[in-house]
Amino acid sequence: xxxxxxxxxxxxxxxxxxxxxxxxxxxxxxxxxxxxxxxxxxxxxxxxxxxxxxxxxxxxxxxxxxxxxxxxxxxxxxxxxxxxxxxxxxxxxxxxxxxxxxxxxxxxxxxxxxxxxxxxxxxxxxxxxxxxxxxxxxxxxxxxxxxxxxxxxxxxxxxxxxxxxxxxxxxxxxxxxxxxxxxxxxxxxxxxxxxxxxxxxxxxxxxxxxx
Length: 211
What we know:
It is a single chain. This protein is mainly alpha-helical. The protein has helices at residues 3-15, 20-31, 34-64, 67-90, 105-117, 120-135, 140-167, 174-210. The chain is built from eight helices and no strands.
């Protein structure tokens, strides 16, 4: 699969599961005028992309320099990413109406930053997904395509879900959220297993070289 579309698939599986970011965007689209909802989505996209860049080029670059750390991230990360996928399939999402969204734009930016950069689950997921792919050995020319694909996923998802919900507010229910989570869960299981098998293959190569 071309690196851009791989990044797009990974990015969608990363941002689409219904967590704090999505509840914030969804509740804004359900209760606020469309222009305000789109501005909120744009703010969330900014923080989402910056976190993905940090995980890929920051943590991922550090991991890339240490072989044992690469193996650990591939093996453990593969298991964790697969587990995230399984939990998404099993999870019953809800529309949490308690998420406060009627805020000045400055406070919206602060809250979007908090639910992204100060969300341990988002940092862990981003590290395992994007750091794992960096550890798996992405060619220099493919790194930009991968991250562009992931960034495109943020724009497509958050703008798309904002427009759809603002247009069809009365028809959005938990069944649709469940379908989203199941699809994302399957994608994450696929990529998580790929990371784990890559790690197993590297361990086998190292053992063969030693013995």
